[in-house]
Amino acid sequence: MTTDATITLLICDDHPVVRDGLRGMFASADGFEVLGEASNGVEGVDLAEQLDPDVVLMDLRMPGGGGVAAIAELTRRGLRSKVLVLTTYDTDSDTLPAIEAGATGYLLKDAPREELFTAVRAAAAGRTVLSPAVASRLVTAVRTPAVPAGEPLSGREREVLALVSKGTSNREIARALFISEATVKTHLTHIYGKLGVKDRAAAVAVAYDRKILG
Fold it and tell me: Fewer beta carbons within 10 Å, N or C terminal of the chain?
């Protein structure tokens, strides 16, 4: 760190408005210094190596180099910078790879200002920071047993997948099948495992390809 009281930052996001907003936010608060900005993951890794910030605020989906690959590269290079993911996405296909790649924390962009400041301080100190929604997903992933790929879908799982293919939300699926949203999520986790995919779109595509749907 620059001083005991100052936390240095690198902002990595493909949207200039977001970068400007974050820079202004941290400039208006005591104890933070933004060293630079990057518009994609590749540029972010290079700047992190040059500037040696305490914390990298990392978006995930960016043209020219995504956040997960950047986090993995920062980890591979052994850089001391902690990575705090700041994104609009909290799906399993985004959350788990980012954490596995080496992110110290994961927040959504709608987090309140003070929550973001607290998260950055915690990340700089090496403490894990997760938004409540992300923490819940991680707990569910840990508690849900793995399902072998290739195992046939159950009748209920086929029903859930058929509704997913029509763009039906988890809440609407729960209402249609008279089950809880948590049960819908569990069915989806099993479906993803059996089909060897990570998200809804891929599950539907594979299901059509294998004639499970159609």
Answer: C
Question: What DSSP designation does 90 have?
Answer: -
Q: Strand ranges (DSSP E) for 51-179?
A: 55-58, 82-87, 105-108, 129-130
Give the closest residue to 13 by CA, choosing from 1, 25, 28: 25
pLDDT in tens, 123-162: 999 898 888 777 766 666 655 555 566 688 999 999 999 9
Task: Kindly report the length of the chain.
Answer: 214
The three-state secondary structure class of 172 is helix
CB neighbours of 186 closer than 8 A, spacing ≥ 6? 140, 144
Amino acid at 126: G
Instruction: Report DSSP state, residue 61.
Output: -
The Cα–Cα gap between 16 and 57 comes to 14
Q: How far apart are the C-alpha atoms of 41 and 212, rounded to whole Å? A: 37
DSSP 130: E
- Coil, helix or strand at residue 11: strand
Burial class for 35, CB neighbours closer than 10 Å (0-12, 13-18, 19+): middle
